Model the fold of this input.
Amino acid sequence: MEKYDVLFIGAGQAAWNGAIPMAQKGLRVLVIEKDKFGGVCSNRGCNAKILLDRPFLLKHITDQMQGRVFENQLTVNWADLMAVKQQVIGAQDANNRNKLIRNGVTVIRGEAKFIDNQTVQVHDTDYTADKIVIAAGTRPHQLTIVGNEYLHFSDDFLDLPEMPTRLTLIGGGLVATELASISAEAGAKVTMIVRDAQLLKGFYEKYVTTVTAALQALGVEILYQTTPSKIDQTDDGLVITTNNQQLSPVDYIVDATGRTSNADQLGLENTDVICDENGWVKVNAYLQTNVPQIYATGDVTNHQQPDITPVAAFESKYLGHVFTHEIDTPIVYPIVPRVVFTIPRLAQFGVMPVGTISDGVDENGHTIKQLPSQNDWFKLIQNETASEITLVYDQAGYLIGAAAVGYAAEDEINGLLPYAQLKMDRQAMDQFVWLFPTLQYMTSRNV
Ligand SMILES: Cc1cc2nc3c(=O)[nH]c(=O)nc-3n(C[C@H](O)[C@H](O)[C@H](O)COP(=O)(O)OP(=O)(O)OC[C@H]3O[C@@H](n4cnc5c(N)ncnc54)[C@H](O)[C@@H]3O)c2cc1C
Ligand SMILES: NC(=O)c1ccc[n+]([C@@H]2O[C@H](COP(=O)([O-])OP(=O)(O)OC[C@H]3O[C@@H](n4cnc5c(N)ncnc54)[C@H](O)[C@@H]3O)[C@@H](O)[C@H]2O)c1
Done:
């Protein structure tokens, strides 16, 4: 049996961010990946999505400036865009694999299964390690309704050679909303079937309204408080029946109703590892399962954090520090920001205003300050009138939350994070000299 110091199951963000520093510090590290090195984010998530979105953002910005600065409207050819995406993303698997190897990590492509608490099997060979890390991530959740064989998933959407004329997305979370934005920008007639009364639960409602209005302006029809019950194939296309009505036929349906843990496919029944009732691997504050030598990181865990790449990467790096004896303390998560890559983007972190107040003191005694786009001449030149930033301060005057909507909301929120994470007062903030003219300078001078 081959023995390593650390064995990772999965080669997504939750693995390689820790595996590389561990190997660089002299540990013998094995990473087993059954599909593509880099996992969902590199191959069929964040990166593919942002590549398909970016030209539409650029087009949108120039469209807003038509008649003011630009004279000809841009068009995006989906087939060309997909060819670029395939070329760039197609290279990720090999790049990620080579990066691991270059940094001294041993890699195997194959499906790993536990055969007991100490042993993982792949291609009929047994491997053991002092520490085994489950970093096996998730797959798309599939609705169990009649006709679910007609459903597609985000993986399929991100590979679409042609944009369907009529497309329906089921779900109102990040995947559904971002893919609705891309497909509507690409010219599809888009319908969203949303179980809740609004999109993007957990995001700042005022800016969810802005994003929703932008989708509707592109012709997206949003059916709230609606759940699908069956799908029929007819001569005119796929017909979804919901709790309320029978919908018009469409060409393509994306099930974006969340993600399912891959923990059920790891042979955990041969171990003592416990998962919660939804299949997420239970970990303690050291990311350790109930079996002391088995750990878990990223989306596959029951962590109370958003399932996003920066969290998976943070956890993986944390284990790197623990396994090399640099720290022995529980994981402490920093403030975790979130972003929705629609046009405009919506990004936020920390505490949000309570109620409808947008300037003044809210019900929790927090001071709310709103920065409209008129404060920022980058936005004025782009005619970006709907954009806005909302800042939330505690009673001592520290920044504890921020939300932004606009073409560069993600960068604005990134720029504000250090003030809150490091609890900076005015004197500390004034220690920075930001380059000018830049977005960071414009945002920071208003904090
Ligand atoms: C469409 C989409 C868009 C997204 N966009 C963003 C975004 O913009 N920003 C963001 O921060 N997050 C985004 N996310 C979320 C992000 O992709 C995940 O949070 C991140 O990929 C989690 O990393 P992970 O390593 O925990 O899991 P994964 O990326 O799922 O990696 C797990 C790996 O384990 C492998 N594996 C599973 N079982 C086995 C086995 N038995 N043997 C060997 N290998 C196995 C899988 O093949 C996979 O490669 C997006 C997700 C989706 C679906
Ligand atoms: N920009 C980003 O950071 C980004 C982008 C995409 C995805 N992600 C991550 O990927 C993960 C998956 O995203 P997602 O949008 O698939 O999941 P989600 O949990 O955010 O949203 C799922 C949606 O499906 C609905 N739903 C669930 N079950 C349903 C059912 N049976 N019938 C009808 N509707 C149902 C929910 O009400 C919700 O609106 C998230 O954790 C997210 O953090 C992040």
